[in-house]
Design goal:
single chain, mainly alpha, three-stranded antiparallel β-sheet, 3 strands, 67% helix, 7% strand
């Protein structure tokens, strides 16, 4: 993560305000509007921050998204599936009884395990958190 992106994320985590505008973030962090814009463009697609309506304001307002950490980890499922599939493609292209095949089987087994475990783990986290913080 770029430094200015990390700083914008941190500002939104630590602010006592409900929301902040890009101008608020730039002023708070003493960074350019371009740096704020770039940070927002990196943080929104991964689900860490969100744009929220602010009645009476013409500016976009942003806040750190509730449930952001679990959403971020859930996105890892795509990476895990990609790596699992890459291992299978490698296995399809190599001989079965080779060092390469052993490595690729380990890779595939690892990513299968992670895919099987991560989804229920995140769901358990969400349930536990919701029960503890109604």
């Amino acid at each position: 993560m770029q430094r200015s992106t990390a700083r914008v994320m941190t500002a939104l985590v630590y602010t006592e305000q409900d929301t902040m505008t890009a101008a608020d973030l730039g002023a708070e962090l003493s960074i350019s509007s371009g740096a704020v814009s770039t940070a927002i463009k990196h943080l929104m697609p991964v689900g860490l921050i969100e744009r929220v309506p602010a009645p009476g304001s013409r500016r976009d307002h942003y806040r750190f998204r509730a449930g952001a950490w679990a959403a971020l980890m859930s996105q890892q499922n795509t990476l895990l599936a990609t790596m699992h599939n890459a291992a299978q493609e490698g296995l399809d292209a190599t001989s079965a009884d080779t060092v390469t095949a052993r490595r690729l089987h380990e890779m595939q087994d690892f990513y299968s395990f992670m895919l099987d475990e991560l989804v229920p783990l995140i769901e358990r986290w969400r349930e536990q958190y919701a029960a503890e913080h109604p």
